[in-house]
Amino acid sequence: MERSIIDVMLQQYDSFTTAEKKIVDYVTTHQKESQYISITELSAACNVAISTVSVFCRKLRLSGFNDFKIELARADLMVSPGRSAGEEDAEIRPGDTTSEMVRKVLANSRGSLRRTAQMLDETAVDQAAAWMQAAGQVVFAGVGNGGQAARTAALAYGLLSPKGKAADEPTAISIALAGLSEGDVVIYLEDGGADDVRRAEKLAKGALARFVLITSHAYSPAAEEADALLVCGAEEPGGRSLLGQQMTRLLLLEVLLKRYAMLAPEACSQYGDRVTKALDQEKISL
Fold this sequence. Notes:
Layout: H1 5-11, H2 18-29, H3 31-34, H4 39-46, H5 50-59, H6 65-78, H7 98-119, H8 122-134, E1 138-141, H9 145-157, E2 164-167, H10 170-178, E3 185-189, H11 194-206, E4 210-215, H12 221-225, E5 228-231, H13 242-263, H14 265-282
Parallel strand pairs: 1-2, 1-3, 3-4, 4-5
Helix pairs in contact: 2-4, 4-5, 7-13, 8-13, 9-13, 10-11, 13-14
């Protein structure tokens, strides 16, 4: 059975420094809270330096603090497959009534959103939003269900800025990305298709554009090379959930666009008013 990061820390406990043991003690006692806090908050809670937390993460063979939080979330899930300690059994089984199935679908959906929040890299959100502000154009791209989310995101972004466009199939993505310039941004919503995402990433990097990846595959080659990574936590017992996957993508997009709007609230508001007036004239509603 795969060992969790909690197991690893406890096994190596005696090899840690006094300061590092403080981190282990805090995290194992406050496992759920630790999935949400920043590195600054953790260092303050443990009364250790931020650099100590960073070194501790590397000692665990992790690339950084966000990976540490992801592993804590995974450890939480490993308490019982598909659910956290104290969470109800949400696995859909043959023989479930419709009302039972509805309850479990809702529980799974809440779990998907919770896990996505736990894995959220706040620094990546802030950086991606800043890149979008500075970009000449922002392309939302993806195929399959990722393409549907890309269209939704581009439409929402169109209420904030005229710089966005959507591309939802491989040929359209290639055409859109061929027009990128240095400093532009690609928001790619992965839904399988490793070749598609790697092709898009290569085109973006060839144009010196920023590549922001939204995916449930946190350790894929594309994720490792992305300029910013936002991880979906849409795992559930009994198999993949279409609703859970799409909800987590939309949650991350909503957070990203809210952060973007907060960077230039007046400009976004003014442009949104112009769009609203144009829609009112045509009697169109979004």
